[in-house]
Design a protein that fits this description.
Layout lengths: L26 H14 L2 H8 L4 H15 L3 H8 L2 H10 L3 H13 L6 H10 L2 H15 L3 H8 L2 H11 L12 H14 L8 H7 L4 H15 L3 H8 L2 H27 L4 H10 L5 H12 L3 H8 L2 H11 L5
Helix pairs in contact: 1-2, 1-3, 2-19, 5-16, 6-7, 6-8, 7-15, 9-10, 10-15, 11-12, 11-13, 14-15, 15-17, 18-19
């Protein structure tokens, strides 16, 4: 299957995503082509169209498909496809908030909670994105995300999760407040200096400050304590709360690196790969690719070629977009 190229540097400017608006876009043409492909069971065409349109364009294609066929595109795709490819195509026609809402719901279904999957979404999204996800979650499932999270978690981990989902970031723009940085460093250091670690200041500060501010705090705290943030979290916290702090610190310091590490450790798990490839394709997947290459000395594109086959492979390659030499 040939992957459609997006010509022209103007389509690449100002974004770190790999999926951009498709030029000469016509939702009506795409809708008719999808309808024909579904009749002919031409999976390659389904994949080619849906992976070469950005999310806003895919929403228009879904609307046009409804008008042309009087059928819901998601329902038709469910009947035509199966397995991981079906999941990927359905993910592509959700809005970003709907997709993350479904991912969060999946982490809480069945026996036990997938804490790492839950944290990936909560720690890598902004406060506004999380508000949108909460709305989408209520519309999709008729449930309140915060209530489900509270019932699925406990103790300090529950406090961290609730603070994340309700976070209101301060100091994300404008001048750096040196006084507040100094105060935060002292507060975080004091919380881990006594006989008993106090988790509350770590939750409060790490969920109410912007990343620029926190990275300055982290740098000064590392100099003060003589160890990395990762070591501090490892040495002073435990259990799910330690996992939560480690994930949150990793995302604050370098979200693409955290996601590259998650891909590297979970490449055989299609749900994790799908979540990152779809979720970051219009945001920072170029950065994730770069970090993956530095981390593994292998490109993400080549790794996908090795680990996946058939139309699923082609869909993931289309989202990845190109090789990194």
């Amino acid at each position: 299957m040939d992957i459609e190229k997006i010509p022209g540097n103007e389509m690449w400017w100002g974004t770190l995503g790999t999926v951009r608006p498709f030029p000469d876009f016509s939702p009506d043409v795409d809708a008719r082509d999808l309808q024909t492909a579904l009749v002919k069971k031409d999976v390659a065409t389904l994949v080619r169209i849906l992976t070469n349109r950005n999310n806003a364009q895919r929403q228009k294609v879904a609307e046009a498909f409804q008008q042309v066929s009087q059928k819901d595109l998601s329902s038709v795709l469910k009947k035509a496809l199966s397995g991981p490819l079906e999941d990927l195509m359905l993910a592509l026609i959700m809005t970003p908030a709907q997709f993350d809402a479904h991912r969060l719901r999946q982490t809480m279904e069945g026996m036990g909670t997938d804490e790492e999957g839950l944290l990936e979404v909560l720690c890598s999204r902004t406060g506004q994105q999380l508000k949108d996800i909460m709305v989408a979650y209520k519309l999709a499932f008729g449930r309140y995300l915060e209530n489900d999270l509270e019932s699925e978690t406990s103790k300090d981990f529950s406090k961290l999760v609730m603070a994340l989902v309700m976070k209101e970031e301060r100091n994300t723009k404008g001048l750096i407040d040196i006084h507040l940085i100094d105060e935060d460093v002292k507060t975080l250091a004091a919380a881990i200096s006594g006989k008993k670690t106090d988790s509350a200041p770590w939750i409060q500060i790490l969920t109410t400050r912007g990343p620029d501010h926190l990275n300055r705090v982290f740098l000064r705290l590392e100099m003060l304590k003589g160890e990395t943030m990762e070591k501090m979290v490892q040495n002073h916290f435990s259990g799910d709360f330690k996992l939560g702090l480690r994930t949150l610190v990793g995302c604050i310091q370098n979200t693409p690196l955290y996601l590259a590490q998650r891909l590297h450790g979970s490449m055989k798990k299609s749900t994790i790969v799908r979540g990152i490839m779809v979720g970051r394709s219009e945001e920072d997947l170029l950065c994730v690719r770069r970090e993956f290459r530095k981390l593994t000395n292998t490109s993400l594109y080549s790794t996908i070629q090795k680990e996946f086959k058939g139309d699923l492979q082609q869909a993931l390659l289309a989202l990845c977009r190109s090789e990194d030499m």
